[in-house]
Amino acid sequence: MTLQFHPYDSAFVAAVRAGGPDANGQPAERAVSDGAGNPCRHCLQNIPEGAPMLILAARPFPALQPYAETGPIFLCAAVCASWAGEGVPEILTTAPDYLMKGYGANDRIVYGTGRVVATADLPAYAETLLDDPRIAYVDVRSARNNCFQARITRRS
Q1: Which InterPro entries does the entry link to (predicted)?
Q2: Phi and psi at residue 126, to the nearest 5°
Q3: Would you state the pLDDT for residue 36?
Q4: Same domain, 61 and 116
Q5: Which domain holds residue 20?
Q6: Same domain (yes/no): 107, 137
Q7: What is the pLDDT of residue 108?
């Protein structure tokens, strides 16, 4: 199986960069990256030390519902290209492990799929989850802070 990693929605990112509201209805906070642990959820690279960044609330789900988790994310303040690469993105190689959860087409967690997975095992566990026909996609989150990192689907 070939995995496809998805960054945060470009339309939402552009709207927030232009001063639009985040998932909590507030403008993003502006900050400067300290170079460690500031992964941009759009280009899926770490924001370089000294670069301006945005901190905001995000909810990577199409509608409000009990499983539509909202949490903080970072974005490059300057325009960056949306991730369109092959393989595992940079931001999913910098921590020792990640929280992974499978979701159905109804955007609800498929119970029993949530697991903290070692970085090296991330692709294999994503493939295992996506082999289950009940699972439409896998969300990868920080194992320590539960922040959304990226979404994984089967490559079409």
Answers
A1: DUF1203
A2: -60, -45
A3: 77
A4: no
A5: 8-76
A6: yes
A7: 96
In terms of domains, do 115 and 150 share one?
yes
Residues 57 and 110 in one domain: no
Is the Cβ–Cβ distance between 76 and 50 less than 8 Å? no
Residue 30 resides in a domain: yes
Q: 110: exposed, middle or buried (C-beta count within 10 Å: 0-12, 13-18, 19+)?
A: middle
Q: How many CB atoms lie within 10 A of CB 3?
A: 17
Q: CA–CA distance from 71 to each of 55, 102, 141, 148 (Å)?
A: 10, 18, 10, 7
Residue 81 lies in a domain: no
> Over the stretch 6-57, which tens digit does the pLDDT of each residue have?
999 999 999 999 999 999 999 999 999 998 789 999 999 999 999 999 999 9
Nearest to 37 by CA among 134, 140, 147: 147
